[in-house]
UniProtKB/TrEMBL annotation:
It comes from the Bacteria. Pfam families: SBP_bac_5. Its main location: periplasm. It is found in: Periplasm. This is ABC transporter substrate-binding protein. Signal peptide: none annotated. Belongs to the bacterial solute-binding protein 5 family. It comes from Acetobacter thailandicus.
Length: 507
């Protein structure tokens, strides 16, 4: 039996609660689902469960022609009715699928033309609609299973993918097994037939060190999100391949709240940008395994603007000059003051993702300049609320995306309110050209249209010093040399197991 054992980080208490346990499970069950369309890393859209699609001139109507040979894992036929029901479920507040619902954007309704043709209507153009449909969060699901399982559906998901959901043992593992009927693989994978693996067992191992230990003890064949400090020793093993897979999108940045003193001052934000040695931070924390970020889009992402690399080189002397010009004068106690108010920044951090280490390093680097850092280590709900409500001066944030288009989600002022993820808290009156550029891109489906616009957005974000880019997201994968064919989707975050195989010795 070709069974692949995968060690994964799964600890709900340390994850964004807005995703929820159901969506976390979906990350491991990506292979259970197929999507209507498929996206490549260079921004092209290829067929999936939809053989073709047509977009109206006003970009508010999408007509999809579906494959006729696809079955769900429960034996029911894949039809337009399943697409309609899946979208309605994603939008239903009762399903608590905030991410899937938000990905639908300006979705209004889905009209069934016939069993294998449907029209989707939008209230207004939504350039990221096809991108959203290429992600498993919006993959069609069995109508029968949704009706029978109700709110518990994501504990027993039924899709059309190359693997069938088998079981989920809380705190232990999640298991998927090969779909023997699979014959509709997408063009983004090589293997166009059923999967090579018989079964994949995802073992939940929250601690980074313990995942590495489980691999070394041969308890798992592959681990995701390996500890950066363990990468070099694992790489030195003759039976192991270690690969750092870049995750595209918005890199982890220190979002600077421009509505809260003292980061409401451009000079202070620029000083912070010059005062933090990002190269040293990435080397110290990630042991050279991750890549330092330069701008609001990672350099592995479609639409990256390389001119951001000219902004804010490490220069403590420049930082001091900017602070003094802004009226922040150092006093006998070694701290800077302006109008008797000390220069203090509040840093909100989770107890994971190396955020505490970031806080310690930044505190150490800013102290000689007379800047005090107050670290608020908190739970995920409190951390999210801090970002949404603007309680912070600094807060780490990163987002997965296949292209620079997601910048609108983070930097448009419409997303800076109490319920949004625009954690620079920029209003429409602040640097209005950012909103103008993003809004111009709202109807740009093709990369030739949106890339030049988001190139300008990246430069505007850096000029306004809305964030201090730290590191590009990545997934360190350690695998036995007997494992081959693992790939990832266009975002780089979610594994594709269509081509994966494992060679195991007898006995």
């Amino acid at each position: 039996m070709k069974q692949l054992r995968v060690g994964v980080h799964y600890e709900p208490s340390n994850i964004d609660p807005h995703l929820g346990a159901a969506e976390l499970a979906l990350q491991m069950t990506n292979g259970v689902f197929d999507t209507l369309v498929n996206k490549t890393t260079d921004g092209e859209y290829l067929p999936g469960l939809a053989e073709s699609f047509q977009i109206s001139e006003d970009q508010c109507s999408y007509i999809f022609t579906l494959r006729r040979d696809v079955l769900f894992h429960d034996g029911t036929a894949f039809t337009a009715h399943a697409v309609q029901a899946s979208f309605e479920r994603a939008r239903d507040p009762a399903s608590k699928s905030q991410l899937a619902g938000s990905l639908l954007g300006s979705y209004r309704s889905c009209h069934i033309i016939n069993d294998y043709c449907l029209e989707i209507l939008l209230d207004k153009p939504y350039a990221l609609f096809l991108d959203a449909l290429s992600q498993a969060w919006l993959a069609p699901m069995s109508v029968k299973a949704m009706q029978e399982n109700g709110p518990g559906f994501m504990r027993h998901p039924v899709g059309t993918g190359p693997f069938i959901f088998d079981r989920w043992e809380a705190g232990n593992c999640l298991v998927i097994r090969r779909n023997p009927a699979y014959a509709w693989a997408p063009p983004v994978v090589k293997n166009q037939e059923k999967a090579h693996l018989d079964e994949i067992v995802f073992k939940f191992i929250a601690d980074d060190k313990k995942r590495s230990e489980a691999f070394e003890k041969n308890e798992v064949d592959l681990i995701f999100a390996a500890n950066p400090g363990d990468a070099a020793p694992l790489r030195a093993r003759q039976d192991t391949d270690v690969t750092v897979w870049p995750i595209r999108g918005v890199p982890v940045c220190l979002m600077l709240n421009i509505k809260r003193t003292p980061t409401d001052s451009l000079a202070v934000r620029q000083a912070l940008s010059h005062a933090i040695d990002r190269d040293a931070l990435v080397t110290e924390v990630f042991k050279g395994e991750f890549t330092r970020a330069y701008g609001p889009v990672s350099q592995f992402t479609l639409g990256y603007e390389p001119d951001v690399e000219t902004f804010y080189p490490y220069d403590p002397d420049k930082a001091v000059t900017l602070l003094e010009q802004d009226g922040w004068i150092i006093q006998a106690d070694g701290r800077r003051y302006k109008n008797s108010v000390p220069l203090e920044v509040i840093f909100y951090a989770l107890p994971v993702n190396f955020y505490p280490e970031f806080g310690d390093i930044i505190t150490r680097e800013l102290a000689p300049l007379g800047i005090t850092v107050k670290i608020e280590l908190c739970s995920p709900p409190a951390w999210i609320q801090a970002g949404m409500q603007g309680l912070h001066n600094m807060i780490p944030q990163g987002k997965y995306a296949s292209s620079s288009q997601l910048l609108g989600f983070v930097y448009h002022s419409r997303n800076s309110g109490a319920g949004g993820y625009g954690w620079s808290k920029r209003g429409p009156e602040d640097y209005p050209e950012i909103d103008t550029l993003i809004e111009q891109s709202d109807t740009c489906i093709d990369k030739a249209g949106y890339v030049p616009l988001f190139n300008k957005v990246q430069l505007a974000v850096m000029q306004a010093a809305l964030a201090v880019p730290l590191h590009c997201n990545a997934n360190i994968v350690a695998a036995r040399t007997t494992v081959s064919g693992l790939t990832f989707d266009a975002i780089g975050a979610y594994p594709l197991f269509h081509d994966t195989t494992i060679q195991k010795s007898e006995g």
